[in-house]
Specification:
The complex is a heterodimer of chains A (947) and B (417).
Chain A: E1 11-20, E2 23-29, H1 33-39, E3 46-47, E4 54-55, E5 68-72, E6 78-83, E7 93-96, H2 123-126, H3 135-147, E8 162-174, H4 178-189, E9 194-197, H5 214-226, E10 230-233, E11 236-242, E12 246-252, E13 261-273, E14 277-279, E15 292-294, H6 295-305, E16 312-317, H7 321-331, E17 335-341, H8 348-357, E18 361-363, E19 365-372, E20 376-383, E21 396-399, E22 402-406, E23 409-411, H9 414-418, E24 423-426, E25 431-434, E26 441-443, H10 458-462, E27 472-474, E28 479-480, H11 481-489, H12 495-502, H13 515-526, H14 530-533, E29 545-546, H15 547-551, E30 563-564, H16 568-573, E31 577-581, E32 584-589, H17 597-610, E33 613-616, E34 621-626, H18 630-637, E35 650-656, E36 662-672, E37 675-680, H19 685-699, E38 706-709, E39 714-720, H20 724-728, E40 732-733, E41 744-750, E42 753-759, E43 767-773, H21 777-788, E44 794-795, H22 798-808, E45 856-863, E46 876-877, E47 887-895, E48 900-908, E49 917-920, E50 928-933
Helix pairs in contact in A: 4-5, 6-7, 11-12, 11-13, 17-22
Chain B: H1 6-13, E1 36-39, H2 43-56, E2 61-64, E3 80-81, H3 88-102, H4 104-108, E4 119-123, H5 126-141, E5 147-150, H6 151-157, E6 172-176, E7 180-181, H7 184-197, E8 201-203, E9 208-213, E10 219-224, E11 227-230, E12 234-236, H8 242-247, E13 256-265, E14 275-278, E15 283-287, E16 293-299, H9 311-324, E17 332-343, E18 350-353, E19 359-363, H10 373-386, H11 400-403, H12 409-413
Parallel strand pairs in B: 1-2, 1-12, 2-8, 4-14, 12-19
Antiparallel strand pairs in B: 3-7, 4-6, 5-6, 9-10, 10-11, 13-16, 13-17, 14-15, 15-16, 18-19
Helix pairs in contact in B: 2-7, 2-10, 3-10
Chain lengths: 947, 417
């Protein structure tokens, strides 16, 4: 056991059992999976991405590139690529290594490592070019894909729940180390809401490895906890910093019977970033072997978790902090084999302390290489030569079971950079630091360089390493110093190019330990300085964030709001079959017991033609257009003439886009000189309002007119059929029937309810649309059903509605039109106000292309065989063998009323081809012959709807 | 240019990969004069330069790039390649590209990893079904592969797909088996390397600051951040910056620019065999060879030149991904990014001549330009070399916005590219 008898913040009274790769171990409450594994002497925990090299635990935090494991919490709860350093230990935790076969200790794919001389940066661009044009896809890609990837994706749907919360705060503090806690205390004292978040399970940051600071830490946290204005969020990562201090936080809860994670979106008056700094690894051959660890991480394991990660410890040091770590391990009981000081000399005080402790310090030394199989067993130390590389000829072996790397510190400026803050290069500290900010943000503590001391500059630390074999800088992606040199040699000089060519910094640790080394190496190869090479862009998220947290509660039926019309519940009771139309659920047909869709639709259609049908049309978009300039506004927008439309009359309105193509349609009724009731298509409600508002505000700001969406306010009940008036009239009060012709509108009472009654028809029959307040619609519907019982009133759905309108040749926007259809194409030229000076799209209608005789025009189509339907979407061709599309079938239905199938289509020059035969393509047979006919199959004069 | 091959790779392994030279020459300064200058070193611009040199034997060609090559939308897209567009003009253009993709690695001697693993577009309502079946009919007539799958066949083709999701069940889908993905960076680098070998000068960090014109109005040269360049022919291929460059010659472009976002997950073992697109729920997904799920999100609602977008756009897309593929809910987003897409009113590109003699433009690819890269470069090179539109490019002329002969794929399909 490497667990110390005393010390650390773990609770030795609460042992926790867990397993790794099927073996059972024990840790304590307060452990992470990484600290618990180390406490059990487990150093080998993973395999690298490309060469499958054995890897251990490099760090103690989010920057961990190597110790990635699979956490299995049961069916649907398998989580790949979890960083063992960030997984709090819980009772019964099941963890497995990944990316190895057949086992972690013996991984056959590690043979890839033998080919590492071949498989350098970008090798895949240079080979797999044959044999044959499809060699890559057919032969090589499957092999590469199997080798690549890390863990296994979950295999079943995730049963856990995720939440979402929005919050405002006067101050959001990111990072609860000493600087963040101080900032939170200060903000709390000033009053106002404070949010303090930290990615770790425990607050304290670097203080967690400073036992002497624990009493004060406890007191500070108690003070913050006691303050109701302070929200403390542990295990919460600020991962995205958006405009105007809009910061997204991912909180991990993982408590039983609670959410797994929650996404916070916080708008803060001021953000304090106290995100700390990350220790830099050192590039030398074999720096990736299990047992090679960041020095400060080892100190944390010893002091925070009471774990001694090695008994015989060597350290390679480019920064003073390496000594503190070394001494801490010595204090915890380790033997210090040697400290290789990469600098010419360490500060005298540190050397004196080392001497006092009997620690051997070899100045100006580096590591030639390491030894060991699945864990480090020793290293070769050598004096550094003139080029910075250790001189292998003068190497001496040193045995060790743990090698510390103290490469200096990189401030975590990720979020500051995401906030569009400028970074400045601090030559003294050898680091990018926050410069000019563009948000209300303050950086404090190590991320601002505070408390950091200079060490060996990173370019000098990396000097000479480009020739070392197997000196890894991106340990997860297996990018070596040689790969960087190769990329530069091949002309990849932009740091973005180097990143993409070598994949340096693109692993799941997002370059937290590799980016600065990559920069230093590129700078070295190009003979330029680090700031001249520049940084790659810092992108969200700061650490990988689960999809579930983003999706939150938007799942299942809550994925998108379900919009239900006022009569939805009634339709459900009747056993209606529904179809989605945008967010709406609309009743498609109302089958009787045992009735198929076709029979139901036929029955519903015949009822409308022969007696009366009733239809829920509430989903139609409705816009109340009000104001002294309302008529003028509509005049400028729609193609129709509105100024002379009488009060109490309606008109079928057509709206175009600027390019002259049909955008939407709907009946518009005039209720008063200054008030119009505009209807739109169901799908077009929002976008039409959006477009009209856009014109109102930006093009016609001088007009006095207001637009209000009333789609949900009105329940709309359509009564259609020769008996419609007979059903309706007894229930209507306050209407002058003598002055209520087709296309009239009136305010009256229907079944005692205040209503707007339209006499309109989308079926070709005598028809009415009763608009009543949505809450009253069910009552009015019931009254109409009762009144219609004697006439066999029949509820019908959208499918019958489609058939009925197609029999009449009425278009549906989005079906007969597709954004390429002009009013004339659709046979609607008669709607266009010829004398109008302007309307949206008018100018476009005069473009030469719009005037061609061979434009695709709306026609009716009758199958020659009188039985079969052409496919909707089938292309129309002139002969059965033609390859040239001349149009397409837009709608096709069986018509019970007519006794034969009907179709509508758009056909080149179609109106001049009535009587011709064309063919519709088929996906599984011969093209179908169709006769071109006028698009109205029933009652072309309109006698029925005026009846 | 010394060739790329497995043999060469092995030979180089014996000497520490030290024998590789720069993949493209990188002159620091442009020469004083060129026959053709391409403005914009993305995939389309580099492909144009390559085909100008290779097929039209143009002698002196430069590509000027204000940043680093392939750093714009070429390196920021979700790499989807397909040609099942509705209108014959579009299908011809994109299928021309697919045919070039199929042999591109060999053509360039650079593995661009074209992977025709099939692109499946999902239908969730009757309208989708009608629209996609119309595409299938149109494509088959035009000789472009596209087939209709019912919902069960969709699941068989893409096993992770949940066709019975509660809110928007899958009714079926249109599958183009020749569609797929490629390695986006490799396309830029491969064209750059091949073009450079044919003598094309690729000058990075060279921003065009002005277009000079002669007395006849024709182009005579360019001002750049690295000096003046004389040339009689300029091809502008500057994506989101096109409007700004064209304005230097006094040409206003019918373009709007929007941020478009994408993201990748952490890498996992192969779990997703194809490309799936769903416009109704706004999700586009494939898995890269490295193992990352590559996911496309939507554009922001308002025009902007910011290469970043809102969190809500990412949320919206990931909600859809989690509904279509509930097993991916525990996957994690590793990286997100944005690009600026230049869109036309009919959502089809502009390729061709401009009112300024000697000035050519290739732009307006919106959210779907990557797939067209080889075809776009190929027909644009021919257009520049001959001074008249290549037949495939002809319908995509700038003057279609005057004549009204639009090619409105977006309106026709309600499908993002």
């Amino acid at each position: 056991m490497t667990r110390l008898a005393t010390g650390g913040r773990i609770d030795r009274t609460r042992p926790l059992r867990f397993s790794f790769d099927g073996r059972d171990y024990t840790g304590f409450a307060g452990d992470t999976l990484a600290s618990a594994l180390l406490a059990n002497g487990v150093h080998l925990v993973g395999r690298s991405f490309k060469y499958h090299r054995p890897r251990g635990i490099l760090s103690a935090g989010v920057e961990e590139p190597n110790a990635l494991v699979e956490i299995d919490r049961g069916v649907g709860r398998r989580e790949p690529n979890a960083r063992a350093t960030m997984v709090p230990l819980v009772e019964g935790l099941v963890a497995r290594s990944q990316n190895r076969w057949p086992s972690l200790r013996f991984d056959l794919a590690a043979l890839a490592g033998l080919g590492s001389a071949v498989l350098g940066a970008g090798f895949y661009y240079k080979t797999f070019l044959g044999p044959g044009r499809d060699a890559w896809h057919k032969r090589w890609e499957p092999l590469i894909r199997r080798m690549a990837g890390l863990g296994r994706a979950p295999e079943a749907a995730d049963p856990d729940r995720y939440g979402n919360r929005y919050a405002h705060a006067e101050v959001l503090v990111v990072g609860a180390g000493p600087a963040g806690i101080a900032a939170a205390l200060e903000a709390a004292a000033a009053g106002g809401r404070v949010i303090l978040c930290d990615e770790q399970a425990e607050f304290g940051g670097s203080l967690l490895a400073e036992p002497r600071a624990w009493p004060q830490l406890a007191a500070d946290m108690a003070a913050l906890s006691a303050n109701p204005a302070v929200t403390l969020l542990p295990r919460t990562t600020a991962f995205s910093y958006g405009l105007q201090n809009f910061v997204a936080l991912a909180q991990v809860l993982e408590q039983p019977n609670d959410l797994r994670e929650r996404l916070w979106q916080v708008r803060a008056q001021r953000v304090v970033l106290a995100t700390g700094a990350l220790e830099r690894p050192i590039p030398f051959s074999g720096n990736d072997r299990p047992g090679v660890m960041l020095a400060d991480a080892a100190r944390h394991y010893a002091q925070r978790w009471g774990v001694l990660p090695g008994r015989n410890v060597a350290a390679v040091v480019a920064h003073d902090t390496g000594y503190a770590a070394t001494f801490a391990l010595q204090d915890a009981g380790a033997v210090i084999a040697a400290v290789l000081e990469m600098r010419e000399a360490a500060p005298a005080a540190l050397l004196a302390e080392a001497a006092r402790r009997g620690v051997r310090v070899l100045a100006n030394h580096g590591v030639v290489g390491t030894r060991g199989g699945l864990r480090i067993s020793g290293l070769l130390a050598a004096p550094r030569g003139a080029d910075g590389a250790p001189d292998a000829a003068r190497a001496t072996p040193i045995a060790c079971d743990l090698l510390l790397m103290a490469g200096g510190w990189t401030p975590s400026v990720h979020l500051f950079s995401q906030a569009r803050g400028m970074l400045r290069w601090d030559a003294a500290l050898d680091a990018f630091l926050p410069g000019e900010a563009r948000e209300a943000v303050t950086c404090v503590g190590a991320c601002a360089g505070e408390g950091l001391a200079p060490g060996l500059p990173v370019t000098q630390m990396a000097a000479g390493s480009a020739r070392a074999p197997k000196a890894f800088i991106d340990q997860q992606n297996d990018v070596t110093t040689r790969d960087i040199a190769l990329a530069v040699r091949e002309g990849f000089r932009s740091i973005e190019h180097v990143k993409r060519y070598t994949t340096n910094g693109m692993a799941t640790d997002q370059g937290k330990t590799s980016n600065m080394l990559g920069l230093a190496l590129v700078a070295g190869e190009l003979g330029r300085s680090v700031p001249e090479v520049g940084l790659t862009t810092f992108r969200a998220p700061y650490t990988p964030t689960s999809f579930g947290a983003f999706a939150g509660r938007h799942r299942g039926l809550q994925f998108d709001p379900v919009r239900a019309a006022p009569l939805h519940d009634w339709a459900v009771q009747q056993g209606a079959v529904f179809e989605p139309v945008g967010q709406w659920q609309r009743a498609r047909y109302f089958p009787h017991a045992g009735e198929e869709m076709r029979a139901a639709v036929d029955r519903e259609c015949l009822a409308v033609r022969e007696s009366v049908g009733i239809f829920d049309a509430s989903t139609l978009g409705k816009i109340e257009v009000v104001g002294p300039d309302a008529a003028l506004f509509l005049e400028r927008c729609y193609v129709n003439a509105w100024q002379k439309l009488g009060i109490g009359r309606c008109r079928y309105g057509l709206l175009l886009r600027e390019d002259g193509f049909i955008y939407d349609d709907g009946v518009v009724g005039r209720l008063a000189a200054d008030r119009f009731h505009v209807t739109t298509t169901t799908g077009g409600a929002a976008r039409v309002l959006h477009m009209l508002e856009d014109y109102r505000q930006t093009e016609f700001p001088e007009l006095h007119v207001w637009l209000t969406s009333t789609t949900e306010h009105w329940g709309v009940i359509a009564l259609q059929g020769p008996r419609a008036r007979d059903v309706l009239a007894p229930l209507v009060a306050g209407l002058d029937w003598a002055d209520f012709p087709h296309m009239a509108v009136a305010e009256c009472r229907v079944a005692g309810i205040a209503a707007r009654l339209f006499r309109v028809s989308f079926s070709g029959e005598l028809g009415f649309e009763v608009n009543v307040p949505a809450s009253q619609a069910p009552a009015v519907w019931q009254a109409l059903m009762q009144a219609g019982a004697a006439h066999g009133i029949t509820p019908y759905g959208t499918e019958a509605m489609h058939v009925l309108r197609a029999e009449k040749g009425f278009i549906i926007v989005g079906q007969e039109t597709d954004g390429t259809v002009t009013p004339d194409d659709a046979g609607l030229t008669w709607l266009v106000g010829k004398a109008k000076p302007d309307f949206i799209g008018k100018r476009s209608l005069t473009r030469p292309e719009m005037l061609r005789a061979d434009r695709r025009q709306l026609v009716g189509l009758r199958p020659h065989d009188g039985r079969n339907l052409p496919d909707e979407g089938a292309q129309l061709i002139a002969t059965a063998t033609s390859r040239e599309a001349e149009g397409h079938v837009t709608s096709a239905y069986r018509s019970a009323s007519l006794g034969h199938p009907i179709a509508l289509g758009l056909l080149a020059g179609g109106r001049a081809r009535l009587g011709d035969t064309v063919f519709a393509t088929s996906l599984n047979g011969a093209p179908m012959a169709l006769e071109v006919v006028a698009p109205c199959f029933l009652d072309p004069k309109g006698d029925r709807l005026r009846g | 240019m010394s060739g790329f091959s497995a043999f060469r790779l092995l030979r180089e392994a014996l000497r520490g990969q030290s024998g590789w030279e720069p993949q493209w020459r990188a002159p620091a300064q442009p020469q004083a004069e060129y026959d053709v200058v391409i403005v914009g070193g993305g995939g389309h611009g580099l492909a144009t330069a390559y085909y100008l040199a290779k097929e039209h034997r143009v002698g002196r060609i430069a590509v000027l790039e204000k940043g680093w090559i392939g750093g714009g939308n070429t390196g920021r897209n979700t790499t989807i390649i397909r040609s099942n567009y509705l209108f014959p003009e579009s299908a011809a253009l994109y299928d021309h590209a697919v045919q070039l993709w199929e042999g591109l690695s060999q053509e360039l001697n650079y593995n661009v990893m074209f992977s025709p693993r099939g692109v499946l577009m999902l239908a969730h309502n009757v309208h989708d079904e009608q629209s996609f079946r119309r595409h299938v009919h149109a494509n088959r007539l035009a000789g472009v592969d596209n087939e209709w799958l019912d919902a069960e066949a969709c699941r068989a083709f893409c096993p992770p797909l949940d066709i019975h999701q509660q809110r928007y069940p899958v009714l079926g889908g249109a599958l183009q088996r020749r569609g797929g993905v490629a390695r986006h960076d490799a396309v830029a680098w491969g064209y750059a390397r091949a073009a450079s070998a044919l003598g094309v000068d690729i000058i990075q960090n060279c921003e065009v600051t002005g277009i000079t014109r002669g007395v006849d109005g024709g182009v005579t040269g360019l001002s750049t951040s690295r000096g003046e360049v004389r040339t009689r022919k300029v091809g502008v291929v500057a994506a989101g910056s096109t409007s700004l460059v064209m304005a230097m010659a006094g040409v206003r472009m019918p373009l709007e620019s929007f941020p478009l976002q994408a993201l990748v997950s952490e890498p996992v073992k192969p779990v997703f065999p194809c490309v799936v697109m769903s416009n109704t729920v706004h999700a586009y997904i494939s898995q890269s060879d490295k193992g990352e799920l590559v996911i496309g999100a939507g554009t922001d609602q308002y025009p902007s030149y910011s290469q970043a977008g809102g969190v809500q756009i990412l949320s919206h897309t990931l909600e859809a991904i989690c509904e279509l593929f509930p097993m991916f809910r525990r996957m994690r987003m590793l990286r997100s990014w944005g690009g600026i897409v230049d869109t036309t009113t009919d959502r089809s590109p502009i390729i061709g001549l401009t009112p300024v003699p000697g000035l050519y433009v290739n732009c307006g690819w919106g959210t779907g330009g990557f797939k067209a890269t080889p075809g776009s470069g190929h027909v644009f090179a021919a257009t520049i070399a001959r001074g008249e539109p290549h037949p495939i490019a002809a319908p995509f002329s700038l003057d279609r916005f005057v004549t009204g002969r639009l090619i409105d794929e977006a309106a026709a399909a309600a499908v993002a590219h």
